[in-house]
Fold this sequence. Notes:
This protein is an all-alpha fold. The protein has one domain. 75% of the residues lie in helices and 0% in strands. Helix 7 packs antiparallel against helix 8 and helix 8 packs antiparallel against helix 14. The radius of gyration is 18 Å and the shape is globular. The relative contact order is 0.14. Pfam families: UbiA. This is 1,4-dihydroxy-2-naphthoate octaprenyltransferase. Belongs to the MenA family. Type 1 subfamily. It is a multi-pass membrane protein. One of its GO terms (molecular function) is 1,4-dihydroxy-2-naphthoate polyprenyltransferase activity.
Amino acid sequence: MNPWILAIRPRTLPAAIGPLLVGNILALQLTQFSLLIACVSMLCAVLLQIAVNLANDYFDFKSGVDTEERLGPVRVTQSGLLSPTKVRNAMSLCLLLALLVGSYLIWHGGWPIAVLATAAILGALCYSGGPYPLASHGLGELAAFVFFGLVAVVGSYYLQAGETSIQAWILGAAIGFLNAAIMLVNNTRDMVTDTKAGKQTLAVRLGLGQARVLYQAFVYLPFALIIAGFFLGFLPGLPVLLAGLSLIIARKLNTDFSQSSGAELNPLLGRTAKLTMIFSALFSIGLVFV
Length: 290
């Protein structure tokens, strides 16, 4: 496989696409809805996700976290498929492109979008790098929840509507939990090597048993949120019903996660990302027909 395909980690991209899809479809019925804004915001999110993946590859190699003992998919810097300089430059290019693309969104959305854009770029750099890497201090799941949940859904809706809504916040939290679950799978798989490297991820801090309990919460809470949103009158029934069908996938994932460890968790990384996309797509389809 082309090393650049390995570097951008396509299986993780639903983490960026899903929330932007929901945020924009939520605003679809607005008279001021802009397909251009929807496409540009999604492109910006994907560029940021790729930048995060490249930064993780580069900074984990430089800090000695990624070694020959790692159990996860091939990391292009550690394995020598790409030089650290090339990966660093590609990361910088993606961040620059995200900023250039995002400048249109900033012009359209004003200072709130400028603040979110600044925070997103800093988050991409500080996830694995900087003086206080978020991933090394148990904050990776929180970062995923905030940036690829709340910020992505609420921010994309704000770009279309010029305001936020309770629906956007509920859906942002729901998808944020699913994306946090992706991060937790990754960190649970790497517990042994991360411990040796001194990387104190949330999984390392909690231990395998509690990480399994937390994963269960992450994949089930989204359904509790949208059902509560329906009964409180904030969310329409059809999208909730359709998205609820993906609970079957969530249950299977939880069962498999509770019985797996180490390299056995590799397939669950992509499957958890697919759950994010399926949940988002089903809810979006429901919104279109409301």
